[in-house]
Design a protein that fits this description.
single chain, 11-stranded mixed sheet, 4 helices, globular
């Protein structure tokens, strides 16, 4: 069970990551939680890290990642329900809710096949099934899902067998995790970096090299917004 302030901070970090892919600064966190000093934020971050809810990435400023979610807690009066970035449970299902609430909140997202987090595989465009996702885990626009194959994104918390939820879009900011189509034949899930006129597809695993392409060889097909994991 998290304290109210811990929940507020975890929710705030998640919301900022969902909105723009960049975690908030300590000043922004201090202001959002109405704390008088950054030492209180440090203590909250340490508590969340010790409990396994967030991870601080080494050698990167403001590098925070939500890696685990608390059990669903009843929302406090006047506060928005917490929206985690990873959904626990079987593929194709969300955590059990009353039937009426589930009907109102669930959105059927098509599963379009498999995506490689490693050596690129042939892009699949065939809808095989759907997964029901709460709108809280989605951004605006059209979405689809892909099953991950490979281990090149494990340091970003994405593992073989995970189901990634992708917002369909043709552009992305540097640092976004995207579905990239290479030479109109191969799709891969990587972090996008712009290096001058070139595009770098960066793994989150030191065993994989960053691959650099000319801009005419890579097309963005979507940006990662959520993750479904089964245990």
């Amino acid at each position: 069970m998290l304290t109210r302030k811990q929940m507020e901070l975890l929710r705030f970090i998640h919301e900022r990551l969902t909105e723009n892919g960049v975690p908030p600064s300590f000043d922004e966190m201090k202001e959002a939680l109405d704390l008088k000093s950054k030492s209180g934020i440090h203590r909250l971050i340490l508590a969340l890290e010790e409990r396994g809810f967030i991870r601080r990435l080494p050698n990167r400023a403001r590098a925070l990642e939500v890696i685990r979610l608390p059990e669903m807690q009843a929302p406090r009066p006047g506060r928005q329900r917490f929206a985690p970035s990873v959904i626990e449970g079987d593929l194709g299902k969300v955590r059990a809710q009353p039937a009426e609430q589930e009907t109102q909140r669930s959105v059927a997202i098509p599963i379009m096949g498999r995506i490689a987090a490693g050596t690129p595989i042939t892009a699949l465009q065939n809808r095989s099934s759907t997964v029901d996702i709460s709108p809280e885990f989605l951004s605006h626009g059209e979405h689809y899902a892909l099953e991950v194959r490979g281990d090149s994104m494990i340091e970003a918390g994405i593992f073989d067998g995970d189901l990634v939820v992708i917002r369909k879009q043709e552009s992305a900011n540097t640092g976004d995790i995207v579905v990239a189509l290479i030479d109109d034949e191969e799709a891969t899930l990587k972090r996008l970096r712009r290096k001058g006129a070139s595009i770098a597809l960066e793994a989150a695993n030191p065993n994989y090299e960053t691959r650099i392409f000319g801009p005419d060889r890579v097309r963005v097909q979507g940006r990662l917004v959520s993750l479904v994991r089964r245990y």
